[in-house]
Amino acid sequence: MQFNEDSSLLKNDSIIKKITPLVIWVIIIGITANFVKDQKSEASVGKDVIRCIIDENASNLNSPACKRVINRCSNDTTGSCKKLLFYSDDGVHSEEALSILGNICSKGGEKACDILINRCIENNSNCEIFGKSYSIKNYLAMKADDKNTGKSVMYKKLKNYYDKDVDNIVSSVIQTCMTDENSMACQIFTSKLYEFNSTEKSDFVIIQNSNSEIDFSNIGISLTINPSSSDIEIPKADEEKSEKTDSDKIFESTSESEISDVKQINKIKKALKITKKDKVSYTNVDINNENPDSTSNLDELTIKTSTNTDISSDSANKNVVLTKKQPDTIFKAVLMTSEENNIDYIKNKIYSFDISYKEPANTKIRWFVSFDGKATWKKWDGNSWIQADTSGIENINFSLFGNNSAEIIKGLKDYTLQPGETSLDFAVELISSDETLTPSIDRVEVKYY
Predict the structure, then answer these.
(1) How far, CA to CA in Å, does 402 sit from each of 160, 222, 249, 294, 405?
(2) Strand 363-370 vs strand 221-223: parallel, antiparallel, or unpaired?
(3) In terms of Cα–Cα distance, which of 336, 342, 343, 348 is closest to 415?
(4) Smallest Cα–Cα separation from 416: which of 387, 392, 386, 448?
(5) Distance (Å, rounded) from C-alpha 42 to C-alpha 48?
(6) Angle (nearest 5°) at CA 412 between 176 and 179
(7) Exposed/middle/buried for residue 35 (C-beta within 10 Å: 0-12, 13-18, 19+)
(8) What residues contact 94, with CB distance under 8 A and at least 6 apart?
(9) For the chain, is the Cβ count within 10 Å smaller at the N or the C terminus?
C-alpha cells in the first residue's frame, strides 16, 4: 500500500513538472502577442500622425490619416494626443500639430483642450497666438452666442484654473475681459463662488471670539455645538460620590463660617467619628502625634450637621441650580476672507451678492465688508456704506453694528465702487444663544465687472 501511494505521488509530480513549462510558455506567448499588438498599434498611430502632419501638412483634416488621428485623440485612445503633443513642441511641425489639437478641442476633446491649456500655463507666450483657433485667448474672446462645443469645455477648465489663481490663466482672463465685456472671459472673471466647505477652510482667516468655533463640513460652515464646561456645572457621578469618606461629606455640608473656624486650627487635625442618632460629632486629633490614643491638651471641635431630611432637601435644590441653563451665554465665532481668497480686482461695480444660509431661532449671522483690502470695514445703513470702526475687525461688535444677510445682499446689489475701492473682502460672525442650535452658511456668489 505504501508503494502504491509513493508511486502515485511520483506520477503526479512528474505531470506537474511537464505541465508547468507549458503554462509558462502560454503566458509568455500571450504577453508577447499583446506587446506586439500594442507596438503595431502604436506604430500605426505614429504613422497616421506623420502622414497627417508631415506628408499632408495638416492641410486636409478630412484625409483618412487625419480623421483617424482626430478620432483617436478625441476619445483619448492609443496615444494619439501624446504624439501630437510631441510634435507641437518640436519647432518644425508645431503649427500643424497645434491646428489638429485646436480642431479636436473645438469638438469637445478634453485631452486636446488640456494640452492647449497646459502650454499656456507653462509659457505665457503660448496663451495668445493671433489669428489661431487653438489660442487660449481665442476661446476667452468667444461670445455667448458663439456655437462651439469646445467653448463649454474650455469654460469649465479655465474657470477652475482661474479660481485657483494660476497666474497665466488669470492674466489672460482679465486682459481679454477688459477688451470685451461681452466675452467668455468676463463670465469667468466677473463671478466668484465661495462654497464654505471643508476644502476651503485654509482660504479663510478664523478669528475666534468666544465659547465656540467655526465648523467646516462638506456642505458649509456652522458653529461647533459643544457647550462650554465653564458655563454649566456637571454633577459628579454616583460612583465618585460613593468613594467619599464620612469626613468629606460632613465638610461638604458645613457652612462657610464653620469651615473658616476649622481652618483656624494651628495643627492639621484628623477627624475621629463619634456616633449619635441624628447628629455627628468629630474630635480633632493631631495626626503627627505618635500615640493616637492620647488626646490630652488637644483642641476639640464639634461640627453639627443638618438632619438627613435637610440634606435630601438641600441636595435636590442644588441639582436644580446646577442643571439650570445659563440664559446669558452667547456662542459665536468670526471668519473673514484671506489674501488668497478675496476678490482683489474689480473694474467697476458689484451687481450681485447672493447668500445661501440658515438662521434658526435664537441664532443670527452678521456681516461687515471691506472695499480697500481690509484697511477699513463698512456696514450698509440703508442708503450707503459707512465706516464701522478703524481699530480692527477683532474689536468690532458684530451683534450690535453688523448687517444681517438680507441687508448686505441689498447693499451690494448694483453697488458702483468709489475711487480707491477695487476689492471685496467680507467678515462674518455666526452667533447663537442656544448651545443646541447654530446658524450656517452654505455658499456665497459674487458677480462683478
Answers:
(1) 33, 18, 51, 73, 10
(2) unpaired
(3) 348
(4) 448
(5) 10
(6) 10
(7) exposed
(8) 87, 88
(9) N
Ordered structural domains, the chain, with CATH: 44-190 (no CATH), 198-227+329-448 (2.60.120), 238-323 (no CATH)
Give percent of the chain above pLDDT 70.
65
Which residue from 435, 438, 429 is spatially nearest to 228, judged by alpha carbons? 435
Alpha helices in 214-359 (DSSP H): 238-242, 246-253, 256-263, 308-323
Give the CA-trace dihedral at 414, 415, 417, 418, to 10 degrees. 130
Which is more confident, 3 or 355?
355
pTM: 0.50
And the C-alpha cell for 178?
Answer: 477688459
Could you give the angle at the alpha carbon of 426 between the alpha carbons of 424 and 431, nearest 5°?
170
What is the radius of gyration, based on Cα positions, of the chain? 40
**417 within 8 A of 371, measured Cβ to Cβ:** yes
Name the 3-class secondary structure at 322: helix
Q: How many residues does the chain have?
A: 449
Tens digit of pLDDT for each residue in 365-407? 999 999 999 999 999 999 999 998 767 888 889 988 999 999 9
**To which residue does cell 441636595 refer?**
315
How many CB atoms sit inside 10 A of residue 55's CB? 11
Confidence class of residue 205 from pLDDT cuts 50, 70 and 90?
very high
Residue 44's SS3 state is helix
* Number of other CB atoms surrounding residue 295 within 10 Å: 14
Contact 39, 29 (CB under 8 A): no
Q: Return the bridge partners of 364, or none.
A: 431
